[in-house]
Structures are given as structure tokens and as C-alpha cells.
Amino acid sequence: MTQSATIILPTVSVILPTFNRSGLITSSLESVLSQSYPIAEIVVVDDGSSDDTEAVVAKFGNRVRYIRRENGGKNAAINTGLRQVHGDLVWIMDDDDLAPVDALEKLVSPFAADPSTAISYGALQKFREDLETGAMRFEQTHRYPSEDERSFFIHVMEDCFITGQPCVLVRRSCYDAIFPLPEDRVISEDYAVLLLLARRWPATRVEGVTLFQRQHDGPRGPANIRYAADTRNARWSAADTELLRELLPDVTMGELVSRPASSEPGDALERRQAYFQKATVAARKKLWPEALLALLDGARQAPDAPLCAMDQLILSRMLGCRYGLDELIAAPGILNELSSALAGLGARREAIACIAEPLPYLIRNQLAERDLRRAWYLLQFYWRLTGWRQGSWLLINKAWQKIFA
Fold first, then answer.
1. Which residue of 5, 51, 219, 306 shows the fewest CB atoms closer than 10 Å?
2. Do 294 and 388 share a domain, yes or no?
3. Residues 299-330 pLDDT 10s
């Protein structure tokens, strides 16, 4: 008779950085303590709160360890927590969000199935809480991009699509390898950390919601730069742009085609794909000079070769910035430069059609929201990019495809 092997499940440490959220942190901690997967330790790092956070956390007794430090921002607080925890895996929880009861169980499952797993992540659902009844009202949220052959790093460079840090579970040795987390980043700091992780390790997506992300109008950021919720998109957009402005020149051609950093694309077709990918990342981060230059360099590689499916996919994502296309409203001539950059490419018309692909969808969204002004701007972009004749043919063709799909 053979004895079955004992499965040793990984231990999990939770770090919850907080600043002046005593009115919300109780719910966050209760959702962590209610998890169906056992937690080895919970460490709350108080980043210099001036409210009664310490007294609120004390009510949880020895189930939660409380550490107070001088205010230095979220990543500084997380670094303090990382020096204290000992679990195999680290789950960083936000002080205003909630975790479904099975969130951690879902996130741990890839690690239990494959000990080489470095990162797992799940989906989030945004919600607002009714101030009178306490009822949760769920809001529509962005879907994660479809998985394809490109690396996790490329997906993350294109978009910080994992917008809730508690959606991610990370092996502690990975955090050790990139420690300390960048404390100079006080806006888009979650994105800065995600880029560091994604560049070194792949990630496994799990099915289902692993975070209820609270939407509220309270102030954000560390004490010295507190900012209102209604300015956050502009601040996040600018911070994301700076992150990629610094990172993109250091990203190798190999990384842009999902190869190890030390490798290089094998031929002209791969080099073209790498340049197209660089252009798409830059455009989505509003780095248009860099995007146009990369697009021009890409068009010069294998100029007579047809576009492959991956080329088409990459180009179709170029105008997908989550913060909108306001810079094109301010400088529509960018679209002329974009078209000119592709002048030497034999498949130029097809490439332009791919780039323009998201615009009809965006136009429909603006019409649904009754924002006729923005819809008109986007329609102008479409005609300017494709030309009247090609644009009309593309729109008619898409309409027929939708009818007979």
C-alpha cells in the first residue's frame, strides 16, 4: 500500500497600509478575517494617521498586528510591512476595499497547483456604498484584456489593467528581489510596483472577482500631496506617462516580442513587431513623439511583407488609452503624422484600418452617453486617419459583419 503524498499549502501574510481611514478600515479587516483560506498573519502599517486608526485596529486584539510609522506614502508603509512578514505569499490589502470571502482561496489555487507560480491575479468589481443603508451598489467596470501570446509585462506596459493591488497575490521572494519598493512614487505607486514585478515574472489569472473596490470621494495620497478624487484621473494619467517615459527606453527589443531581455528579435518581421509594440505602448501612455518614431522604424522593417495577425492585434490597441484621447483633440495633427509614419509600408492601408479599429466603438459609447461633442471629435479622428473613402468602406463592412455574425 502506498502512502499518499502530503500537500503543503503555502502560508499567506497580509499587509494593510493605511492613512486616516479609521471609518473604513474595520470593514476591510473584517473581510480579510472572514477569508475561507487561512491567513498566517495580518499586519496593519499606519502611515502616520492623525485620526483614531490605532484605537480602531486595537479592537481586533491579537488577530491583527499594528505598526505605526512616520508618514511617507503607501510604498514606504508596504516596505515597513515587508520587513515584518514571514509568509510564503504576500497579499497587500487596501484600507478602503473589501475582499469576497473566497478571494484568497482563488488567488492561492495556482500556487498550490504549481509551486513555480510567482504571481496570481483576479478581477475586481467596483462598488459604492449607500451612506444611509450601507447597501453596496455595484458599478460597471472594465474587463481585463484577453490573454494572448504576448507577455504579462507587455500587457501591463500597455495598461495598468489590474487596478486594485489586492487583486494580486505575490510570492514573498519576488518582493524580496525588488525590495525596497520605490518610495518616491506617491501617485500610480501600485502601477510602479506592478511593472517591476511583471518585468521579471509571469502571472496566472484566476477566474472570478477577488476584490470589491470602493468608489468614494474622499481625499487620496500621502499627507504632503493629498488630492481630491475628482482630479485623480488627470494625476494618474500624468504619473503613468512619466513611469513609461522612464522605463520604455530601457526595454529591450526582445522584451517587446515577449522574449528574455537579453535576446534580440530573430528577423525583420520580429523587429517590425517589436517597433509596433513599442509604438502602441507609447501611444497609450500619451508619449506621441516616441510612438511616431517607433512606428516609422517599424514601417522600415520588412516593408513589403503583409501584416501578420499579431501585427494587426498590436496596432489595433494603439488608441486604447484608458484616460481617453484628449491630447488628440488638442493636437489632431498627430493623426496626420501617424499616417505619414506608415508611408513606406506596403500594407499601410491595412495598418491604418487596424489603428482606427477602436474609434467606432468609442463613438458609440459617447453617443450612448449623449456626449455629442466628443462623439463628433472622434468621428473626425476616424475620417482624418482613414480618409473618407476607406473609412466609409470600413464602416459599411463592419456593419454587414455585425448583421450577419
1. 5
2. yes
3. 999 999 999 999 999 999 999 999 999 999 89
